[in-house]
């Protein structure tokens, strides 16, 4: 069953002006749909069709809008942002396990290959998207791999949510999502989209002292945090997000990896990001200061500079 509202919330009421709107509006933009691994997937593109390609994978309960500020700071690149299955305008997976998300992402990148002229894209994941990208990049049991040139993980999830300091909060959140899924439809939807809860999550993650930027961040969460296919898909995605990390597959990722962490990230402490970097065969870590788990909203220009520098690195050669 599709529990999404019939109208996009962004189209039904005036919003807060984006500080990145002028940059975003200057980019060519395209929207289309594709069948990916049996899932109808909404795909949003930014930048020239002949530019070097980057696939962006957004985080839990978000959609493509969340990564638009980073795309806005990468003119000249072709940025492809699919809505994850079950979120935004994409249909849900039959069962939203981490392996199913990883298989879907491998299929998406493979399906885009002909349009990219044989060039393998870079693939970026933010937060829960970092887990999806990492598991897709690690070779699957059937031998399939993510056909990506390089991997970029923003606010990567390095700490198991059900272990350590975050255990109690994660269990509370899991109970919240399970209760919302068990309630009658109307009550469950009201619990999931309750404004105090959505705002509380936004306040917890935001670190900026810029009042105008903070208003926009809260407005973004108000608009897009409750755009999902069903309550069950939200529960399954949350379950996947708290039971898996990037670190559990880091050693099996062959591509060069760029980690972009934040010194005030309450989801994954910085010390864990340094330990995560050491788990990859080939990784580097950039730490942004004065920001937490919302790098894509608060410091997209700084993140874009790191991305450009990483993608400009010469490719390694055999014997190097």
Topology overview:
Layout: H1 9-12, H2 21-25, E1 29-36, E2 39-46, E3 53-57, H3 68-72, E4 78-82, H4 98-112, E5 122-126, H5 128-137, E6 151-154, H6 167-182, H7 185-192, H8 195-205, H9 211-224, H10 231-243, E7 257-262, H11 270-277, E8 283-288, H12 295-298, H13 300-312
Parallel strand pairs: 3-4, 3-5, 5-6, 6-7, 7-8
Antiparallel strand pairs: 1-2, 2-4
Question: Which descriptors would you attach to this protein?
Answer:
320 residues; alpha/beta; Rossmann fold; eight-stranded mixed sheet; 13 helices; 8 strands; 39% helix; globular
Mean pLDDT: 90
Strand order of the largest sheet: 1-2-4-3-5-6-7-8
- Class of secondary structure makeup: alpha/beta
Q: Class of the domain at 17-161 and 245-312, according to the CATH hierarchy?
A: Alpha Beta
Radius of gyration: 18 Å
CATH topology of the domain at 17-161 and 245-312: Rossmann fold
Helix content: 25-40%
What is the beta-strand fraction?
5-15%
**CATH homologous superfamily of the domain at 17-161 and 245-312, by name?**
Alpha/Beta hydrolase fold, catalytic domain
Topology as H/E string? Answer: HHEEEHEHEHEHHHHHEHEHH
What is the overall silhouette?
globular
Largest sheet: 8 strands, mixed
Low-confidence stretches: 4-11
Treating each run of at least 4 consecutive H or I residues as one helix, how many helices?
Answer: 13
Q: What's the CATH architecture of the domain at 17-161 and 245-312?
A: 3-Layer(aba) Sandwich
């Amino acid at each position: 069953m599709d529990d999404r509202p019939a109208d996009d919330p962004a189209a039904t009421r005036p919003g807060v002006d984006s500080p990145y709107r002028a940059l975003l509006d200057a980019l060519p933009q395209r929207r289309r749909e594709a069948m990916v691994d049996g899932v109808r997937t909404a795909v949003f593109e930014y930048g020239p069709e002949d530019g070097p390609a980057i696939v962006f994978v957004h985080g839990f309960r978000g959609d493509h809008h969340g990564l638009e500020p980073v795309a806005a700071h990468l003119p000249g690149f072709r940025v492809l942002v699919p809505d994850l299955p079950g979120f935004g305008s994409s249909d849900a997976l039959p069962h939203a396990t981490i392996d199913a998300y990883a298989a879907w992402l491998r299929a998406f990148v493979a399906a885009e290959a002909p349009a990219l002229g044989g060039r393998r894209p870079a693939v970026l994941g933010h937060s829960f998207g970092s887990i999806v990208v990492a598991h897709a990049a690690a070779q699957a049991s059937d031998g399939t791999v993510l056909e990506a040139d390089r991997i970029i993980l923003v606010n990567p999830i390095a700490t198991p949510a059900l272990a350590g300091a975050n255990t109690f909060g994660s269990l509370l959140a899991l109970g919240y999502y399970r209760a919302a899924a068990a309630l009658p439809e109307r009550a469950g939807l009201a619990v999931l989209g309750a404004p105090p809860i959505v705002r509380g999550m936004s306040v917890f993650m935001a670190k900026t002292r810029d009042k105008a930027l903070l208003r926009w961040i809260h407005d973004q969460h108000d608009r897009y945090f409750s755009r999902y296919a069903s309550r069950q898909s939200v529960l399954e995605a949350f379950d996947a997000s708290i039971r898996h990390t990037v670190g559990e597959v880091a050693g099996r990722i062959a591509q060069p990896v760029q980690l972009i962490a934040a010194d005030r990230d309450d989801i994954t402490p910085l010390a864990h990001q340094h330990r995560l970097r050491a788990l990859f065969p080939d990784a580097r870590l950039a730490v942004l200061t004065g920001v937490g788990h919302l790098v894509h909203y608060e410091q997209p220009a700084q993140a874009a500079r790191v991305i450009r520098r990483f993608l400009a690195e010469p490719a390694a050669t055999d014997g190097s």
